[in-house]
TrEMBL record:
HAMAP family: GcvP. Keywords: Oxidoreductase, Pyridoxal phosphate. This is Glycine dehydrogenase (decarboxylating). Its cofactor is pyridoxal 5'-phosphate. It comes from the Bacteria. One of its GO terms (cellular component) is cytosol. One of its GO terms (biological process) is glycine decarboxylation via glycine cleavage system. The glycine cleavage system is composed of four proteins: P, T, L and H. It catalyses: N(6)-[(R)-lipoyl]-L-lysyl-[glycine-cleavage complex H protein] + glycine + H(+) = N(6)-[(R)-S(8)-aminomethyldihydrolipoyl]-L-lysyl-[glycine-cleavage complex H protein] + CO2.
Amino acid sequence: MTSPPTSTPQQSFLHRHLGPSAVEQQQMLRTLNLTSMEELLEETIPASIRLPQDHVVRSLPPNTDEQQALAELKALMGRNRTSRSLIGLGYFGAVMPAVVRRHVLENPAWLTAYTPYQAEIAQGRLEALLNFQTLICELTGLPVANASLLDEATAAAEAMGLSFAVCKRPRARRFLVDRNVYPQTMGVLQTRAEPLGIRLEVNAPSAFVFDEEVFGVLLQLPDGQGRLRDPTELISAAHACGALVTVAVDPLAQVLMAPVATFGADVAVGSAQRLGLPLGYGGPHAAFFATREHHKRQVPGRIVGLSVDAEGRSALRLALQTREQHIRRDKATSNICTAQVLLAVLVSFYAVYHGPAGLEAMARRVRRLTQAMAIALAQVGLPPALKPGFDTIVVETPAAANILERCRTAGFSLRVTEDGKGLGLSLDERSTVEELEQLLALMAPGRVHPPMAELLEASRGELPVPERHEPWLQQEPFHKYRSETALLRYIRTLAAKDFSLIHGMIPLGSCTMKLNAAAELLPLSWSSVAELHPFAPVEDAQGYRVMIRQLQASLAELTGFDGVSLQPNAGSQGELAGLLVIRAWQASRGQAHRRVCLIPTSAHGTNPASAVMAGLHVVPVACDPQGNTDLKDLQQKAAAHSDKLAALMVTYPSTHGVFEVAIREICTIVHDHGGQVYLDGANLNAQLELCRPGDYGADLCHLNLHKSFCIPHGGGGPGVGPIAVAAHLVPFLPGHPLLACGGEQAIGPVSAAPFGSASILTISWMYLRMMGATGLRQASAMAILNANYIAHRLEEFYPVLFRGEKGRVAHECILDLRPLRSEAGVDVEDVAKRLMDYGFHAPTVSWPVAGTMMVEPTESEHKAELDRFCDAMVAVRQEVAAIASGAMDRHNNPLKRAPHTITALTADSWDRPYSRQQGGLPGNQDPAEKLWPAVARIDNARGDRTLVCTCPSVENYAERSTV
């Protein structure tokens, strides 16, 4: 990051990232009775924390244009050595079908959608996720699967948490773990078990001791050494003592194996990475989680379920767990509030592309190649130490180091066993006869063996465990789209049902749906970014390591802190990691008894959930009528718990959308009572280069790179939630068992990969390089201007619930819709659905205050779009007035019947007391440009009562088609 800017203002990325032009900015400022942007910032941000206008960020050079930034990053990532990885350990070579890469991974219609809270305009990604859930249920034999989790290690930890939560025996705190689970999984389990008082007992499954203190078991099939064993007897023994059994299973092996449910498994977890996802130096990847019907209400994350709409048609929506943290808070079963949606969607299309026959052929070929390779190795004097179970071979030889180096020189990466005496290699769908011949020549030079093709021909590919015999994955989507023409049309059909940033503004408060520029996303397709194993030798990842160091330095300086960990692969994981770091620091001072966490009642619901998972006791702090933290209550709570206070979790700007003037005082109060200040960085988009958490008293914050730093939301994931910490906390940043990272007194890993979802860090690197510090300051200021412009335009029609000391909001505002209920019987949900008819995705609904809308326009939306949104909101308010006056029926009106589908508008009959135009095309919209809701309003309650989370069978489809 050293080159000077080379672009003119017209070519500058900054001028394309910001929505309003210079002329429009002046128009908006005049509307607010302001003369300059600086005047707005003075009225918005307390002077005591505001950075000077000439603040210098040493780690960021001046902004540059797209081509220069891409050239610099390409040169940097070119320093990576992308060998053919056979390391395995849960990460494998995979081939994403070109049609899927082209039409999903590189398609902004899929990339820029958000979590499907408004299901009527999210039916496409919901169907793709239902396909994913169906795939997982069919693979594992378990009836309930979620819409993905962050990674396999996290999924295993969540399974441990579920098993612990449902156990009703007070003394049951032992969790038995197969000693051959993947090392990264073991590390995350250890990190997550200690705060909850869970005792991990790691042993060979044959040595497990079951008694009433055991609540759960974790097995790995195949295990870290590649072994496959029938676990039926062991699972029966676990059940006899009342324990639940989780099996971490490889999805490609599960294609051939009998479903783990037939062995008795209660939970199945794993990574779907090898089903078409690039290695990406660790992510992002989609994990899976499936369980029995009895535990469906304890499942972490999201579940897509089937319901019906107001017109009686099948419709999909998020079920059960939708934003449950915001309702249950410290009683939530998990702090995970999203999923790896984009990755799960890619996996679902991979399964649709191959179908069950293609997946079985692929799995059988991998197994046959493994058998053939094992025979060949034995014949050249390198007999496998264990009988290969599915795809992995381990050989023990004194020549391990020499073999490793020869293979490495030739472009292959193998795994060294923990004792350093053996080598492991794991085959995958990219493995070929020719590749294995080359490997044999490298591993045993000059030794003769039968041709690999002959050995492959003789291999039957049988497994050492019961195999799958019943037909599976018979649902229509996995059989209907065999040609590429059919598949690309299916992908296009689903994309056309979803609202994303290609259609219009998504003004979701606290979610920051800003531009995800094409130049930021291009590097994801480079092999130097996509094809590196997370446990590759350090010398192979020099480009990644430099890019990571540069990003860490920039994020640290932008937040005013001294160190950054990029490992957390979601905001929820950043919260947990941050609190664990605080706990470790407190313990290092002999203060391990500090377990109280103060949390304002306005906080994100993940905050209290994370605190409980970190072993802390949540004490809520009240907010005053202006939405600020109640200083008197904070002082009283801090004093009352002074000897036990660990931390305060505070969001800034506040969850109510204002810069609290007393933030320094808040931090001082907590510090005076021995606590640390954790700042939730969800709203950092209003702060970059305007103020810094480390300057005004915070000790640590997490950052949402998928919000403030342009990683696309992908329909609800991937995300990245790094933590930035002050100097005294740096030694405790998360480590990893397989790669040196973190601090000298590191807490354990919180994610499977050392640097989390490393490949998408390139997006944020590009954003920072193209924006520079000056650009970031302008972006933050523009976000504040856009929000205040909307608040000003709408305050006559909807009261703005909270404002700062000088009447300004931050980067978002909360509109109070509660009066509409008493005035006209209209709820906030009615307005949200009606906005679809006007061509908009609704803002955040009923959070943090029930009956309100939180609006965040971001800096990327231009004035015309802001005005279009305001015009729509004003028009809706006029419709409400018509209902209140009696001009519209109180129950049969455009708001209560919204959204209006094209099917309803083109039906032969129309039974509504308003015109079709008024119902479906209000505001003189062009019907050709409108994203029509795929379904009418969905019955959410019915969906929860009768949860269906898999595709209908072929028989169901047949029955439906004959009705």
